[in-house]
Design brief:
Blueprint lengths: L1 E12 L2 E15 L2 E6 L11 E2 L5 E3 L4 E3 L2 H17 L31 H23 L4 E3 L6 E9 L4 E10 L2 E6 L4 E5 L6 E4 L6 E14 L5 E10 L6
Antiparallel strand pairs: 1-2, 2-3, 4-5, 5-6, 7-14, 8-9, 8-13, 9-10, 11-12, 13-14
């Protein structure tokens, strides 16, 4: 026995459980048993669509739903078209571009060294006086020896002129703070006496500054109870101010 019937699908969806006709079936009855063979009414053009309990239509293949069957068919058609025409995503990479900074082609000149005029003048003055000592030793290699010490010392004062940056020398004799001018100018006075720690300054108001001194050191050597001799050595030093 063959009968035409509607095949019903039982679907549990978000809208609830419902039974809805989807396509026609041929039902065969044998000894009160039913054999159901399903055949879609239009398997090519009609996709499988379920009607939910809330009345909306659902397409399980795409997961789309709509209020009407026609609207859902339109959504399914657009989704399939988009899937067919879309190209697979391509991997992209981020490339860091380093832009070179323009640099000047002009040569970099070294900065001028800091200048200390007084320090330079002291160095030049001490060299000048030491050269004079070496010249005297070359002319008279034998050390100067005296048998007495009257307290007077031969002194050469090197003066620096800040305005002209020139070095000049003045020869004097010194005993304590007493001064005898031997050669050169301006006049020199001793402001403090203590051997090679003595200090000097210009006496006539000149702007010249004493920057180096050639001074005689007497080294005593006793030969007997009453006989003494002195060896004379010249040294160079700078009379630093106490101020």
């Amino acid at each position: 026995m063959f009968k035409q019937a509607l095949f019903c699908v039982c679907l549990l969806g978000a809208g609830g459980l419902m039974i809805t006709p989807v396509f026609a079936e041929t039902v065969t009855s044998t000894n009160d048993a039913f054999i159901v063979s399903a055949s879609s009414t239009d398997p090519v053009s009609q996709p499988l669509i379920f009607q939910m309990a809330d009345g909306r239509y659902y397409h399980p293949a795409t997961g789309l739903s709509a209020a009407t069957r026609e609207e859902l068919l339109c959504l399914i058609s657009n989704a399939c078209a988009a899937t067919a025409t879309s190209s697979p995503p391509t991997a992209t990479s981020t490339v860091q571009v380093v832009v070179p900074v323009a640099t000047s082609t002009e040569p970099v000149l070294p900065s001028a060294p800091m200048s200390f005029p007084l320090k330079d003048a002291i160095s030049r003055a001490k060299t000048l006086l030491q050269d004079a000592i070496n010249s005297d030793l070359a002319a008279h290699p034998k050390k100067k020896v005296l048998t007495y010490d009257n307290g007077w010392r031969d002194v050469t004062v090197a003066l620096w002129d800040p305005e002209t940056d020139q070095i000049s020398t003045v020869d004097i004799q010194k005993k304590g703070t007493n001064v005898k001018m031997k050669s050169g100018e301006p006049k020199i006075k001793v402001t403090y006496t203590n051997g090679i720690n003595s200090t000097y300054e210009v006496a006539d108001g000149s702007k010249k500054i004493p920057v180096a001194i050639r001074y005689q050191i007497y080294t005593e050597k006793r030969l007997s109870r009453k006989k003494v001799q002195y060896t004379v050595n010249d040294v160079v030093y700078t009379p630093y101010s106490k101020q």
